[in-house]
Structures are given as C-alpha cells and as structure tokens.
Amino acid sequence: MIWKVKKRHKPSNQGWRVKIDCQQRAENCSHGAKKPANDPMPRLPGGPCHHRFRRHNGPLRALKTLISRIFVQSMPFQCPTWPPDWPSIELAIQEAIRTGQWGQYHSPLIKSLQKRLAEYLKSGPIRLCCSGTAALELALRCCRIRETDEVILAAYDFPGNFRTVELLGAKPVLVDATSNFIAGRHAISPTPDAEQVAAAASPSVRAVIASHLHGSQADMHALRQICDEHGWFLIEDACQAIGGQIDGEPIGSFGHLATLSFGGSKLISAGSGGAIIANDQRLAARLGGLLDRPGDTFPIGPLQCAAIQPQLQRLDELNRVRNLTAEFLRKNVFQELADWEVLTTSANSRPQTPDDPSTSTRSTIAAHYKFGWLTPSNETRQHVIEHGRAMGLPLGEGFRSMSSASAKRCRKIGSMPHAETLGERLVVMDHRALLTPPEHHDELRDSMHELYRYVNAIGG
To answer: Which domain holds residue 141?
Structure first.
C-alpha cells in the first residue's frame, strides 16, 4: 500500500486536515467499510479509494496518523510464546492427574518442589503459597511487624509492597532509587539506595524490603551489613529475579527472608503462586506457625507445582537466552539510540555464556523479567509504548513512583529524583521479547530502530 499526502488546509475550528490518497482500487480497499456517512468523496469501482483524517483538538494528530500508517506497513515483531506450552508441562500435569496427586492435601508434588527450590537457591527452608504478594505479607508477619513499626523500601517499587506494609499498620519509609556513575554518566538502578537506607535509621525501623527489578540487582551485601548492624530484618523481594546470582550466590539467599512469584507472566509461571524463603531458622519456625493451622493457610495447588517443575529444570537455559538478548540490546541497539538510557544492572553484571571462561561461578548473573530504559519525557514514553505495541513489541510503563505519597502515609528520606524519573519516563519490555533466539536478534534490532525513527519523526 502506498500513501501520499495530496493537500492540506485548515478549516475553522477543526484543526489540520490531511487528505490521503490510498493507491488501491476502491473495491479492494479495507478502509471502505469505515467510510463515514458524511464523507463526500466518491469511491467508484476501478478507481482509487480516498480517505480523510481530521483533527479537532490540535494541529499534529493527522500528520502523526499518517506517519504511523507508513511505519506499520512492515510485519509486526513476533515474540516467543509465554507462558510456555511445552509437552513436558502437559505430561507433568497429566501424570499428576493419573496418580491422583493433583487432589491431595499435602501432596508430594508440593513437598518435592519445595525441596528442589531450596537446593537450587542454596537457601533455607521454603514454603509455597498462593502469590508473591502473600509471600511478602507472610514475611512481614514473620518479622512481627506491627503498628508504630517502620519498614524501609524504595520509593520506586512494586506498589503492592507499600500497601502490604500499610495493611499491617506499619509506616513505610521511602528512600530513593540507586544511581551509579558508569562510563562517564549516571545510570539509574531501580533498587533502594543503600546510603539512604542507612540514613533512614530510627528506633521504629524493624525491616528493609529490597526488590530486584527489571534486571537490576539490589546491593545486597551493603544492605545486609546495614541491617545486621541495626538489628533489622532484610526481606529480599526476588519475585522478578529467580535464577539470578550476585557474586556467585543465588538471588534469594541474601535476606533473612525472601519472596518468589510464579504469576502468569513471571520467569516461572503457574498462573499464580509464590514462595517464601526462610534463611533464618528462628524465622522458619515462626513461618510454620503462621501457615499450619493445621491445614496450609495460603496454599498453592498441586497442579501448579506440576507445571513449575519442568520450568525450573530449564530456568538457567532460558535466563541465558534472556541475558544474551539483553546484552545484544545494550551493545548493538541502545548504543545508537542516543536519548534512550538503559537501566544499569550492576558494575560487573553480564550474561553468563558457555564459551566465556571469565564468567565463573563467582559472576553476577542478571535475571530479566523486564528490560527497561528511560525516554526523554513522559510524552515520549507514551508514543514509544503505543507504537511499539502496534509493532508487536511487548512494551509497558514501569511502576508508579510512591515519592508523591503524603507525609501521613509514609516517612521520606530527602528528595527522590531517581524514583520520580523512573515513575515518569521508564519503558519496560517484557521478557517474552528477550527470549528471541540469537539468530533473530537482527529482527528485534530492526524493530527497535524503526520504533526510534517513528518516535523522532512525530517529534517525540
């Protein structure tokens, strides 16, 4: 299809009007059915089909519509399917049904998965539950968080964490996100700033929540040291980061407690579900008292456990693919997109590859549930997401920053420019795109370049 701007004029009170000549014959044009009743332009058999695009509240929308139609003529980008539809998952579920384990209290499938997760994460005891949010609530209850207590967390975080602290009657204490100076510029990590966490100390603080988000790892060594010095509990939110490592140690093994999620879009998916990891024996005993009454109070289903097992077997394999794609985007795409700033992971973070002997067991390995970058403005972000989705790219906004929450709801430590920037300008790409195999990386690069050209063409 060829689009041409024939003419334009500005009738009163209507804004710009662009008349477009669609070089198709009228009887073949898919736009014919959308012809408004008051459109005076005839469409004769055998002749060209004419369409008008009108703008009533500004001068640029018609031009943007035209540009968008030009740019979306290419085939949309095709992401791999997620949640996965592997035969191994189907067989595991069928076996659970055949043996009757799917309908049992205290099913062996649940106990088996808890054991395998603890071995994989090199962690303390693990209890499965119904969601990652439920796991965080259980973690806070294990720490005996009550009214008048305070819990420190980043102003940019999953909003449910803030609300769960409020649910227990405690007050959230907000700190800014981290900014690292890398390659001559400041790069933001959507994780709590350790220096501000230390500055937030008060007699009321009982715990710190540290979330690993968008492929970025929190500074767990510094945060654990601060918590140990003050007698605080460290809760590690690893819902987005299962399979990642920091200095060779699995994410989820640093906090006194840690949480996982198996929600429908996560790196391991069972539709819903979660887990709480107790790396402290005292807290593990409390957890049993919270969950066993005597039945499991926040249960996960055996069929969900059956679906998780095959994914856990292939988690490292899939994370390698995600990390290779993320590294490809950093080095081969975003280096050419001057005003789009990729989030930092950590100073020594890089994907682990079989042919790179320097990535040893002491390496830091990211786990990308989302891949994030900052656009120059909120308006640009909206253009990127809207057109990127039209191109088949799984894009969305990051979380809303809680930095604007009222002083009645929380205590704040200084200004929070990085959290505000993340809330206003962050675009995240779902890990489905990161599962693109290396032989198709060029297609992803071409789609990103096309998206960048489009946004710049409309003045975004």
So the answer is: 87-313
Query: Per-residue confidence at 7, pLDDT binned at 50, 70, 90?
Result: very low
Residue with tokens 């069929």: 303
Give the DSSP H/E element, type plus range, for residue 188.
Answer: strand 185-192
Same domain, 108 and 10: no
Q: Residues 59, 127: one domain? A: no
Instruction: State the first-to-last Cα distance of the chain, in angstroms, to the nearest integer.
Output: 26
Structural domain total, the chain = 3
Q: Is residue 346 part of a domain?
A: yes
Q: Is residue 325 situated within a structural domain? A: yes
**What are the pLDDT digits (tens) for 242-263?**
999 999 999 999 999 999 999 9
pLDDT band at 53 (very low <50, low <70, confident <90, very high): very low
State whether residue 338 is helix, strand or coil. coil
* CA distance linking residue 94 with residue 96, whole number of Å: 5
Cα distance between residue 71 and residue 328, in whole Å: 24
Q: Would you call the peptide bond into 357 cis, given omega within 30 degrees of 0 as the criterion?
A: no
Which backbone phi and psi does 175 adopt, to 5 degrees? -120, 165
Question: Pick the residue with more confidence: 45 or 373?
Answer: 373
444 within domain boundaries: yes
pLDDT attached to residue 400: 96
Kindly state whether residue 81 falls inside one of the protein's structural domains. Answer: no
Task: Tokens for 187, please give them.
Answer: 């790069």
Q: Does residue 76 have a pLDDT over 90?
A: no
Please give the structure tokens belonging to residue 428: 């995240």
User: Is 228 within 8 Å of 238 (Cβ atoms)?
Assistant: no
Residue burial 111-149, b: 16+ Cβ < 10 Å; e: rest = eebbebbbebbebbbbbbbbbbbbbbbbbbbbbebeeeb
Q: CA angle at residue 33 from 31 to 36, to 5 degrees?
A: 90
Question: What is the rounded distance in angstroms from the CA atom of residue 306 to the CA atom of residue 382?
Answer: 39
* Cβ neighbours for 101, distance < 8 A, ≥ 6 positions apart: 107, 108, 109, 302, 306
pTM comes to: 0.82
pLDDT band at residue 152 using 50, 70 and 90 as cut-offs = very high
Predicted confidence at residue 363, as pLDDT, reads 81
Regarding whether 331 and 308 lie in a shared domain, the answer is no
Q: What span, in angstroms and rounded, lies between the C-alpha atoms of 172 and 86?
A: 42
